[in-house]
Design goal:
The chain is α/β, with parallel strands linked by helices. It has four domains: 12-150, 3-Layer(aba) Sandwich (Rossmann fold); 170-309, Hect, E3 ligase catalytic domain fold, CATH 3.90.1750.20; 318-408 and 485-579, no CATH class; 409-484. The protein contains 16 helices and 21 strands. Strands 12, 16, 17, 18, 19, 20 and 21 form a seven-stranded mixed beta sheet that branches. It has a five-stranded mixed beta sheet with strand order 2-1-3-4-5, with helices on both faces. The longest helix has 49 residues, at 394-442. The radius of gyration is 34 Å and the shape is extended.
């Protein structure tokens, strides 16, 4: 390693000071003022008259994206710095790889002397063989602190203590900082926003009204009342309300008196960026503090905003009996339930990956939109067609059902075998990965701690795969021995020969899944006739799969036509399967 070979007292001696929450237990010795006094004296003793402080107060050593450090780095690259002084190596940072980069490469490359006073490091006197070990121990300290903080954070959050700052409308109770109390002035604004939204005002209109009435935006309001401000700083006295602020306010469950913890997480103690946690990992505690908004009003707002799927399950939540059994014919994803905002009685489904976000984006090229009333008529007509066939041609239907049941079992067996093959291939891949991990650990390329964590992860995955393989094996054995499914289905049909309405119970008893294709426009010769879009639907029944009923006398034709919008009707096109 090339070392700085001379004392460049004609250049600046950069005196770098850093302090963070990790150092609070040693606050007296590590305080910025004490670091400054020590470094100023040592630099003078070393003969440096030109000194400049570079300070990062309240910044963790696990990151090097610090303003003071980056400013010092630019000064070094400009050739203005001859030496860098720090109290000890932990002040430089707590990431041993990055610290090694600066002490082993960056400083020598720019002919900069590096001095860590309390650790006895001075690159002018040659290499310090113990410096890498000190850097490792400094990083271990940061990792240990992070682990303890995460554990405490998890315990507090799991007990219902709010982990986030109070949203607009609340503030911390002076007598108990772990409790929120209503900020009456702000709460009235929140209630007004909800009321205006239910009255039909749009989010931008609400923002314009609040600005016109000189209502301070949340950050400006917090600054005025001496509260801590999170996010970007807002100009004091600003009444400009962002649409995103109002939209977020309309979605917060906290306004109902609930506490929602673990909305975000960080991947590592070295990565400070907060990631969104999926909703199923949120921890919700209801009725912890005084509500600002009545829960029923909040639910009405969520429905109006089209956020029904994100609303907590309750008696007031809307649902549909077809939810969970509709499959997109293009991408294989589930179809999600919606209803028309202007006419709530119009309910429909569309593909969950069309115009999706994240990994789902672009997976499907069409909506596969289907009206619930249209779907109900199609399924009802198809079941009636099968029951009519059973009434007049029972022996023929039993032959068809027996063949269909056999085909369905073969389909399920094929799918199970494919899944078993995939799991076995993954287990074999995990064995190879484990061998490479072991070799890297023996060669010193992988630490014991990292090896233990990764090998534990792979072993857990293999154990889960083995459980799944055992379950699939039992299911496969059971499917191979399946008999009588056609007769069971025929017995179910006979119970519903006089069915007049399709209910959720009847649907679940008959139907396994429904594959929905996207509607196709049909060319019309007569321009005065309404346009027609044909939609193909494949209905798979329990035990027997898809059932094709031939067109015979006494069997009703399935002819469902529903107007879906002005001048357009949808017609059902049955999937024809050879009998």
């Amino acid at each position: 390693m090339k070392q700085s070979s001379r004392v460049q007292t004609n250049k600046i001696a950069a005196l770098y000071c850093r302090f963070s929450r990790d150092d609070e237990q040693h606050s007296e010795s590590n305080s910025i003022s004490n670091q400054k006094k020590l470094l100023q004296k040592v630099a003078a003793d070393y003969g440096y008259k030109k000194t400049e402080f570079f300070v990062d107060d309240g910044v963790s050593g696990t990151t090097f994206k610090r303003q003071g450090f980056q400013r010092m780095e630019l000064a070094i690259e400009a050739g203005l710095v001859g030496a860098v002084f720090v109290k000890d190596l932990s002040r430089l940072g707590r990431d041993y790889l990055k610290c090694g980069h600066y002490t082993e490469h960056f400083f020598p490359q720019h002919d900069v002397r590096f001095v860590a006073v309390n650790d006895g490091v001075d690159t002018l006197e040659g290499e310090d063989e113990f410096m890498p070990f000190r850097n490792i121990m400094n990083e271990y300290y940061a990792r240990d602190i992070s682990r303890k903080v995460r554990t405490a954070h998890r315990v507090r959050g799991s007990s219902g203590e709010p982990l986030s700052k109070p949203p607009y409308g609340y503030r911390k109770d002076p007598a108990n900082p772990k409790r929120w109390i209503v900020d009456r002035e702000a709460a009235e604004v929140v209630q007004r926003i909800y009321q205006m939204y239910l009255e039909g005002y749009g989010i931008e209109q609400i923002g314009a009204i609040l600005e016109k009435d000189k209502i301070l935006a949340p950050n400006a309001y917090a600054k005025k009342h001496g509260l801590k401000v999170s996010g970007k700083q807002t100009i004091h006295g600003s009444c400009a309300w962002k649409s995103s602020t109002i939209a977020k306010m309309l979605s917060l469950r906290e306004h109902c008196g609930d506490v929602v913890n673990f909305k975000t997480y960080s991947k590592s103690y070295k990565l400070k960026e907060r990631m969104e946690n999926p909703e199923e990992k949120h921890m919700i505690f209801e009725g912890v503090h005084e509500p600002i908004i009545d829960r029923q009003i909040w639910l009405r707002v969520q429905e109006k905003r089209g956020k029904v799927r994100n609303v907590i399950k309750s008696e007031t939540q809307r649902s549909n009996m077809f939810a969970g059994i509709l499959i997109c014919a293009t991408c294989g994803a589930n179809l999600h339930f919606h209803f028309n905002q202007r006419t709530p009685t119009i309910e429909y489904f569309n593909c969950s990956t069309y115009n999706g976000r994240g990994k789902a984006r672009g997976k499907c090229n069409a909506t596969h939109h289907i009206r619930a009333d249209f779907l109900e008529q199609v399924v009802m007509a198809d079941i009636k067609r099968i029951t009519a066939f059973a009434k007049h041609y029972e022996d023929e239907l039993l032959r068809i059902l027996t063949a269909s049941a056999g085909d369905e079992v073969e389909r399920q067996i094929g799918a199970s075998k494919l899944q078993i093959a995939k799991l076995k291939a993954r287990n074999k891949e995990l064995d190879s990965l484990f061998e490479r991990l072991y070799e890297d650990n023996i060669a010193g390329k992988l630490t014991d701690d990292r090896f233990a964590k990764m090998s534990c992860k792979y072993e857990q995955e293999q154990a889960e795969n083995e459980k799944q393989l055992e379950l699939l094996g039992r299911e496969l054995h059971a499917m191979k021995g399946k008999t009588g499914t056609a007769k069971d289905f025929l017995a179910t049909i006979k119970r519903y020969t006089r069915m007049r309405k399709l209910t959720p119970e009847i649907l679940r008893e008959f139907v396994d899944e429904i594959i929905v294709h996207h509607r196709q426009r049909v060319s019309i010769a007569d321009k005065d006739s309404p346009a027609t879009e044909e939609q193909k639907i494949e209905i798979f029944y329990n035990c027997v799969g898809a059932v094709a009923v031939p067109d015979l006398k006494k069997i009703p034709q399935v002819d469902v036509v529903v107007p879906i919008r002005k001048g357009v009707t949808a017609r059902y096109v049955p999937e024809r399967i050879a009998v």
